[in-house]
Amino acid sequence: MEDSTKERVKSVFGKNADKYLKSESHAKGNDLPLLKDWLEPENTWSVLDIATGGGHVTKALAPFVGTVFSTDLTEEMLENTAKHLNAIFDNIIFVIADAESLPFLKDTFDVVVCRIAPHHFPNPEKFIEEASRVLKSNGKFILIDNIAPADSKLGEFMNKTEKLRDDSHVRCLSKDEWNHLLQVNNLVVKKSLDRKKTFAYPEWVARTTENEEQVNRVKQHLLQADKETAHYFAITKQGDDIESFMIDEWMVMCEKL
């Protein structure tokens, strides 16, 4: 099950590498400028960017630190990102790596960041354990991801929406679940931010769907939302077409004890 999930991740992201590089929600999120503001980076730091995707975290931090190790499970994705970023920076090392089994020694990095990726991880507890392991004492860890609402019905609706669109999706955790994993791995929350993230539906659904039948399944699922669910996710429609909807995202910075 776990191996097949990771193979699906590699398949989906390998085929859509350039879409993620150019995706508005990934490349221009309001959270990216906050990385520098929150971290106050130093030019001697070694940073690990887990599941870099289109390299947006790496690009945001590379000008201000010593070295960024930019990692991803998907070789095609990483090659595409390296092609773009190597033309700009000379302090990035690209490494094919599994977020749940990182190929680095303990206490290696001053900063570890993972953005809009953990909902693809089959074992988020292993990911947090690994992030803490490779982080130096007093080092900083930033997690940014879509999260499930605390209400279980809304959480199930959100996760089904994501799974219908993207077969590599595993599950968005709730804040309570993330806080538990952080706590048991000696990662103390220092700062956090909740925000609503709006997706332009046509671009969002086209990013990972493979055919019109799949697109229609996502659309019908959203159209069938009850009044409470449609209100929570701010589903906007024009006739039978969906224009946009909104999900919860959480950004948290921790310090390792």
UniProtKB/TrEMBL annotation:
Q: What keywords are annotated for this sequence in UniProt?
A: Methyltransferase, Transferase
Q: Under which name does UniProt file this protein?
A: Class I SAM-dependent methyltransferase
InterPro entries registered for this protein in UniProt: Methyltransf_11 (IPR013216), SAM-dependent_MTases_sf (IPR029063)
Q: Which GO terms describe its molecular function?
A: S-adenosylmethionine-dependent methyltransferase activity
Cited SUPFAM superfamilies: S-adenosyl-L-methionine-dependent methyltransferases
Q: Does the keyword Transferase apply?
A: yes
Q: Which Gene3D superfamilies does this one have? A: Vaccinia Virus protein VP39
**GO BP terms, alphabetized:** methylation
| UniProt cross-references to Pfam families, sorted A to Z | Methyltransf_11
Q: Where is the Methyltransferase type domain?
A: 48-143
